[in-house]
Design a protein that fits this description.
By secondary structure, this protein is an all-beta fold. The chain folds into 2 domains: 12-26 and 66-166, no CATH class; 168-235, no CATH class. It is built from 1 helix and 21 strands. The chain has one helix at 159-164, and strands spanning 19-21, 38-44, 50-55, 63-64, 72-77, 83-89, 98-104, 110-115, 121-124, 130-135, 138-143, 152-153, 168-170, 176-180, 187-191, 196-200, 204-209, 213-218, 221-226, 233-235, 245-250. Strands 1-8-7-6-5 form a 5-stranded antiparallel beta sheet, with no helix packed on it. The chain is globular and about 45 Å long.
Length: 255
């Protein structure tokens, strides 16, 4: 996708790269970032605001990634599992002012830039070369690091493709997508032939879990359901997450 259109997001500072700093990654000596499978999710921190946590697919000990006193949400792992993009409120009291943060999970470097109020979801291109942000006024795009962050509206000719990247595609090759069921709740699979299959009557926030499963929030935990049938597994931790949500999954490197 080539971004060709300028935008007016308000003050020029909204578009400019605000900062880039590095420190030791919070996942050092805990997970093999970019190699082994893991997932990142949002849960309530000690102050009740959203913090980000990482976990192996089987659960066990969760690893906290962020420790701020502002709300953080909508995590999205890059296709190679090395960069975590998410939204961060600028102050604890004002959730309308939001920054897009790109956090390098290998070396701890962080870049951030402002986004319009109401930004709700993030997703990466399939090759990780750019990142998309869904806002009330449309989808914005920025090139991925090491290029500077500069959010621009997606050109009309690319909007259909950009919108498709937010869909939760099931299977490889694709057999359908996970959606909210027709009655406004639950998780259903909308199949390529037009049929609909109920995956969970009480689930929400579906997310692709590799090529053969789908995950969703159910009963205050993450449920992982194989697409070919079989036992539905609940991810459990030694320290149970408070209000887990916003799952993003890296399947690991196939060897």
């Amino acid at each position: 996708m080539v971004v060709r259109v300028a935008t007016a997001l308000g003050a020029a500072a909204v578009l400019n790269l605000i900062g880039c700093r590095g420190s030791l990654s919070p996942l050092s000596n805990k997970l093999k970032v970019g190699e082994e499978a893991y997932f990142v999710y949002t849960a309530d921190g000690e102050d009740g605001k959203g913090d980000l946590f990482a976990s192996p697919p089987q659960g066990g000990k969760p690893f906290q990634i962020t420790f701020t006193r502002v709300d953080e949400r909508a995590p999205a792992l890059s296709p190679d599992g090395s960069i975590l993009a998410f939204l961060r409120s600028r102050t604890a009291q004002d959730t309308s002012g939001v920054s897009l943060v790109l956090f390098n999970l290998v070396n701890g470097a962080e870049r951030r830039t402002g986004v319009p109020p109401g930004a709700s979801a993030l997703t990466w291109s399939n090759n990780g070369s750019y990142l998309l942000v869904r806002t009330p006024s449309g989808i914005l795009s920025t090139a991925a690091p090491p290029k500077p962050l500069a959010l621009l509206p997606v050109p009309e000719s690319d909007r259909s493709r950009a919108d498709s990247l937010f869909r939760v595609i099931l299977g490889d090759p694709p057999v359908g997508e996970a959606v909210t069921c027709g009655w406004g709740a639950g998780v259903c699979a909308r199949l390529s032939n037009g049929d609909s299959v109920t995956l969970s009557e009480k689930g929400s926030s579906p997310m692709r879990w590799g090529d053969d499963s789908v995950a969703y929030v159910e009963g205050g935990a993450f449920a992982v359901r194989p697409l070919a049938g079989g036992r539905i597994r609940t991810v459990r931790w030694t320290e149970q997450a408070r209000n887990p949500r916003g799952l993003t999954y890296f399947p690991g490197v196939k060897r």
